[in-house]
Structure formats: C-alpha cells, structure tokens
C-alpha cells in the first residue's frame, strides 16, 4: 500500500527547496548591509525580473522598495505574512526579510511579490483614493498588477492597473508605520519609489 503525503508537506518541501535556491542572494542582501547607508540604489535597467513562463531557473532577485519622500521601506505591518495585511513604511531593518520584494513580469505589467510569498495589491480591489495597499494571495486580479513609470534612472512611480492610481504614503507622512495607499497621480515625492539592494 502506498503512503500518501498530505499536500501541505509537499508544499513545505517545495518551499524549502525554493528558499535554498534563493538563499545566497537573500543572505547577501541581508548580511552585507548593516545600515541603510550601506544600501545602494539600483539603476532601473539593472532590476532583473523573475520569469513568468517557468523557463528561467535562476533565483529571483529581491530588493527593498524605498519611498522618495520619507526614505523608508515598504513592508507588511508587523512583518506579518497573513493575507490582507496592510503595507506600511518603516526604516531599513537588515534583519527584516519582509522588506524584500521581487518584481515579476506579467505581460506589460509587474506583480510585486513580498518575501512572504504574497503580492502587493489594493484592499478590496478598490479604485478609491486612499484605499490601503495590502499583501494578498496571488489572484491574477488587475489590482495586483502595476505599471512602473520611470521618473529617472533610479526612481519611478507605481500605477495600479485596475485603478490607474499611484502608490504613495497616506497623508504624505514620513512617520514610521504610515500606511501605503493609492492616490490620484500628482508627481510628488510621496509617490516616488526606488529599488535598493
């Protein structure tokens, strides 16, 4: 009689294998930086995208996404990996893997997958100004797709595919823990972002 393993065990084994493949890049990103001043901005043409077609076996590149105005990095609230967790800004933390994101090409759009395995999206797939950014299970919904509009070689805006609005920080706050949300695009520093590694 053949023993059947629960699906969760197989998923956990696969996740462990994927983490082992990605761990050198992640370990380098974490261990080589003791402070935010050690991080280097990444030129937009140097940001590598994971292959959505399954043909690429290279480990995905992970980056911090820093707000131009506050100089803080987006991450799930409290470092949570729970579905529906709000995305907030926090100072750089070398020990926080939840500040790491990978950009995945999806046609003419990008999905941003957090190290937790969940995608950056808008709460309730809302199109309203001020709707909070969250992490959520990948769904293929347009609210998890983003258009990267370059401002210069190092900074960009993130336009939500569903709403057409820009990712920014609520109230243009520079405070720790301020919520990321979507707003009508206005070209402000609050709606500017950069990749750091």
What attributes characterize this protein structure?
alpha+beta; 1 helix; two-stranded antiparallel sheet; 197 residues; 4-stranded antiparallel sheet; disordered N terminus
Describe the structure.
β8 and β9 form a beta hairpin. The chain has a four-stranded antiparallel sheet, with no helix packed on it. A two-stranded antiparallel ribbon has the order 2-3. By secondary structure, it is α+β, with helices and mostly antiparallel strands. 13% of the residues lie in helices and 28% in strands. The radius of gyration is 17 Å and the shape is globular.
What's this model, at a glance?
This protein has 197 residues and is α+β, with helices and mostly antiparallel strands.
Q: What's the layout of helices and strands?
A:
Layout: H1 7-31, E1 64-67, E2 73-76, E3 87-90, E4 101-106, E5 109-114, E6 119-122, E7 133-136, E8 146-150, E9 155-160, E10 166-169, E11 180-183, E12 193-196
Antiparallel strand pairs: 1-12, 2-3, 4-5, 6-7, 8-9, 9-12, 10-11
Determine the strand fraction and express it as a percent band: 25-35%
Strand count, sense and closure of the main sheet? 4 strands, antiparallel
Please mark out the parts with pLDDT under 50 across 5 or more consecutive residues, or reply none: 1-33
Number of helices: 1
Q: Give the spatial strand order of the biggest sheet.
A: 1-12-9-8
What form results from the Cα inertia axes?
globular
Quote the distance from N terminus to C terminus. 51 Å
Task: Give the radius of gyration.
Answer: 17 Å
What is the element string, with H for helices and E for strands?
Answer: HEEEEEEEEEEEE
Q: What is the mean pLDDT?
A: 82
What structural class do helix, strand and pairing data support? alpha+beta
């Amino acid at each position: 009689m053949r023993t059947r393993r629960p699906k969760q065990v197989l998923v956990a084994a696969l996740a462990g294998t994927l983490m082992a493949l990605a761990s050198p890049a992640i370990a380098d990103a974490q261990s080589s930086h003791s402070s935010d001043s050690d991080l280097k901005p990444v030129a937009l043409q140097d940001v590598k995208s994971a292959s959505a077609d399954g043909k690429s076996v290279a480990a995905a590149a992970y980056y911090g996404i820093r707000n131009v105005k506050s100089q803080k990095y987006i991450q799930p609230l409290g470092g949570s990996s729970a579905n529906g967790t709000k995305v907030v800004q926090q100072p750089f933390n070398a020990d926080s893997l939840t500040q790491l994101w990978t950009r995945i090409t999806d046609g003419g759009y990008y999905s941003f997958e957090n190290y937790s395995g969940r995608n950056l999206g808008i709460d309730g797939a809302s199109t309203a100004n001020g709707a909070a950014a969250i992490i959520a299970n990948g769904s293929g919904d347009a609210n998890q797709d983003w258009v990267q509009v370059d401002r210069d070689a190092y900074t960009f805006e993130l336009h939500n595919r569903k709403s057409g609005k820009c990712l920014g920080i609520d109230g243009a706050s520079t405070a720790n823990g301020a919520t990321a949300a979507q707003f009508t695009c206005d070209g402000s520093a609050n709606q500017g972002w950069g990749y750091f590694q």
